[in-house]
Amino acid sequence: MPNLAMLLLVSSSLSIFAQPGPTIATTSHPLLKLRWKPSPSPNVSGYYLCWGLVSGQCTNLIDAGSVTKVNLTGLSSGSSYFFTVIAYSSFGDEAPPSNEVSYSQPNPPNRPPHWDAIGDLTVGGRLRNNFTTRTFTVTVAPGNVLDYLSVHPGVVAVEAGSAAALPLHLVSSDPLANVTFTVSWPSDKFVNPSLTLADGSIFTGLTQVQDTNLLINLAAAAGKTFVGSNIVGTLNFTASSNQLSAFIPIRTAILSGTKANSEPFVDLFPGFGEVVLVGDHPLLRALAPTASTRILNLYGQVGASYRVLYTTNMLPNPVWQLLTTYTQTNEVQSLTLDSSAPFVFYRLEKQ
Predict the structure, then answer these.
(1) Domain containing 257 — which CATH number?
(2) Does residue 273 share a domain with residue 199?
(3) Whether residue 166 is found in the same domain as residue 254
(4) What is the pLDDT of residue 344?
(5) Which among 249, 278, 307 is the end of a domain?
(6) 171 with 150: CB under 8 angstroms?
(7) DSSP conformational letter for 242
């Protein structure tokens, strides 16, 4: 009689009981705790917790084993989730899914950012005119940042002889009642400065011209305070005519800030912005927002025609080649460049 190899398949179907669905035990953002009652079937050896973003659709699954509770983290804020439990046997049989329970993950509270204590910083780099390495240390006094208050000017491009508005962005960690700050201001280039507060502003504003600075005070109305981050107004001005094109830095420095409880702000931070003044000669600025992206910002007079030239070396008498021509439709326009070339030099000329 020949030898026979036999394979015996053994399966035991689950006794189908109505499996109780999961319940939300406790929540403590971002932790969600779920639990369910054990199946009364003696054949059940474990449970799958299944969930998704759409009712009736299981896109995520956890094998909970024989336990009847699971803790979940990493749920997206503002999203709704739908959970079911599936009992299974040691033979791989599965019971029908339990009834479904839904849960909406709340958005976290919007709190001002917390800044940790700043330690000493050592910076190394190369000098521009040679390749000698220089290292220096920036030492910060010990202690934590208790609060913060800052006014940041924005960035605006303006043609010589035209008017413009520079936004002012206020950032405050605590309810603010009053702030006084200066804005660096080249009065030979920008004339007729005035402050326009945002619609519905709680502040009244006072502006004084002081040689190379503007002195600005913002005072909140009685019973009103400001906290958080928002644009509080704009500095309106006119750029003087017949000026050379230039990138002009604008800096702010806070002289004092008072909280709603009459206590002074301790940590007063400067702000940095820029006015790009466009005269007869165009300007361009190279940007690399990512490792694979190169952008040229082109600044010129609206309505004028320009050409963008390029070369791959800056040896004596380089050969400049035409990249593109265009007509300026705004004081600043952007041009996306090929990022594959290792070194490219660009120039912008008026036609």
Answers:
(1) 2.60.40.680
(2) yes
(3) yes
(4) 87
(5) 278
(6) yes
(7) S
Structural domain harbouring 79: 23-104
Q: Determine the Cα–Cα distance for residues 85 and 287; give it in Å rounded to an integer.
A: 52
Q: For residue 105, what pLDDT is reported?
A: 77
Torsion sign over Cα 341, 343, 349, 351: negative
Of 65-79, 155-169, 327-341, least confident by mean pLDDT is 65-79
CA 143 and chain centroid, separation = 27
Q: Does one domain contain both 287 and 330?
A: yes
Task: Please provide residue 10's backbone torsions phi and psi, each rounded to the nearest 5 degrees.
Answer: -120, 130
Task: Pick the range with the lowest mean pLDDT from 12-26, 64-78, 213-227, 251-265.
Answer: 12-26
Say if 313 falls within a structural domain: yes
The predicted pLDDT at position 137 comes to 52
In a domain, 165, yes or no: yes
Are residues 220 and 204 part of one domain? yes
Whether 93 and 177 share a structural domain: no
Task: Cis check for the bond before 30: say yes or no (omega within 30 of 0).
Answer: yes
Residues 6 or more apart whose CB falls under 8 angstroms from that of 212 comprise 184, 185, 186, 187
Residue type, 55: S
Distance CA 106, CA 336 (A): 39
Q: What is the DSSP string of 6-67?
A: -------PPP---PPPPEEEEEETTEEEEE-PPPS-TTEEEEEEEEESSTT---EEEEEET-
Of 251, 257, 224, the residue nearest 149 (C-alpha):
257
Residue 182 has pLDDT above 90, yes or no: yes
259 shares a domain with 159: yes
**302 with 331, same domain?**
yes
What total of structural domains would you count in the chain? 3
The Cα–Cα gap between 97 and 18 comes to 9
User: pTM to 2 decimals?
Assistant: 0.59
Q: What is the DSSP string of 301-339?
A: -TT-EEEEEEES--SSS---EEEEEEE--SSEEEEEE-S
1 has pLDDT over 50: no
Per the CB < 8 A criterion, the answer to whether 47 and 85 are in contact is: yes
Are residues 257 and 288 located together in one domain of the fold? no
130 in any annotated domain: no
At 104, the amino acid letter reads S
